[in-house]
Amino acid sequence: MLQVRASPTFLPSTSSSSSQAPTHSPFSGKSQRRGGLAAAPSANRVARRSGVVMAAAAAAAKLEDADALIDSVETFIFDCDGVIWKGDKLIDGVPETLDLLRSKGKRLVFVTNNSTKSRKQYGKKFETLGMSIDEEEIFASSFAAAAYLQSIDFPKDKKVYVIGEEGILKELELAGFQYLGGPTDGDKKIELKPGFYMEHDEDVGAVVVGFDRYFNYYKVQYGTLCIRENPGCLFIATNRDAVTHLTDAQEWAGKWWINGRCNSWFN
C-alpha cells in the first residue's frame, strides 16, 4: 500500500470533494487521511469499492466447483512476484490459467508493490516470459506514486527526490514531474569532516522511497534535509513488504527495512 507522510500543505481535504486519480489509471479513488499519514488506497481496496469480486475472498470451504467460482467473478487481480513469476522464472501453469480466464471473457489486472520497474518495463518482462499483457492491465507501485502526486495536484514547479530505482523515475517523467536522485546517487558519498555542510534543493516538494539496491547514507541525508527543511515536503513510501522474490532461489529482504530507517531518520 502506498503511504504518505505530509504536512497539510499538499494534502487533499477530506471535507471537500474527493481528488480523482489520473484518467489513465485502472483504479480511481480518494486518498484517506489517517493522523499524520495520507494512505493512498491499495489496488485491492479500490477494486472492492468498484464492485470487483476477488477470488481470494471466496469462502474458506473446500472448492467443489471451480467453474462456478470462475463464472461468478468478473475481474481477477494477480500479484506478480511469487504469483506470476519468481525472479525471471515463470511459475508453472500461469500461461494456461490466464488463457483459460481470457477465453471466458474475464478481465485481468496485474498488481505489484515492486517499484523497480515502470508499467511499460513490466509489459516487456511479461513479453520476455512469453505472455502478451496490455500496459493498462498493469498496476505497479511506481505508477501509483506518480498517480498519487497527480491526484493531489502536486505543483509542477516542485521536484521529487527519489530513493529508489528506474521504475519510479520513468513513471514520474511520464506524469510530467521533475525529479532527481535515484540510481545516479548510488555512488555518492559523504565525507564527515569538520565544517562539512551538505546542500540540498529547496524546490524538492516530495521524497519518494521505493525498493533500492543502491541505498546509501548520502540518499538518507539528502532526503532528511528535504523533509525537515523544505516546508510541506511529502514523504511517500511505495510499499512496506518485509520480503520479496527477486530470484527463484530464495526470499530477499523487502523494502520495510528501508522504510523503517527513512521514517526514523526523517522524523
Q: Which helices and strands occur, and which strands form pairs?
A:
Blueprint: E1 3-5, E2 32-34, E3 37-39, H1 43-49, H2 66-72, E4 75-79, E5 85-86, E6 89-90, H3 94-103, E7 107-112, H4 119-128, E8 138-140, H5 141-151, E9 159-163, H6 166-174, E10 178-181, E11 204-209, H7 217-229, E12 234-237, E13 243-244, E14 252-253, H8 256-266
Parallel strand pairs: 4-7, 7-8, 9-10, 9-11, 11-12
Antiparallel strand pairs: 1-3, 1-12, 2-3, 5-6, 13-14
What does this protein look like?
It comes from Sorghum bicolor. One of its GO terms (cellular component) is chloroplast. Its main location: plastid. It catalyses: 2-phosphoglycolate + H2O = glycolate + phosphate. It is found in: Plastid, Chloroplast. The protein is of the alpha/beta class and 267 residues long. It has one domain: HAD superfamily/HAD-like (Rossmann fold, 3-Layer(aba) Sandwich), CATH 3.40.50. The chain is 29% helix and 19% strand. The protein has 8 helices and 14 strands. The strands form 4 sheets. It has a 7-stranded mixed β-sheet with strand order 2-3-1-12-11-9-10, with helices on both faces. The longest helix has 13 residues.
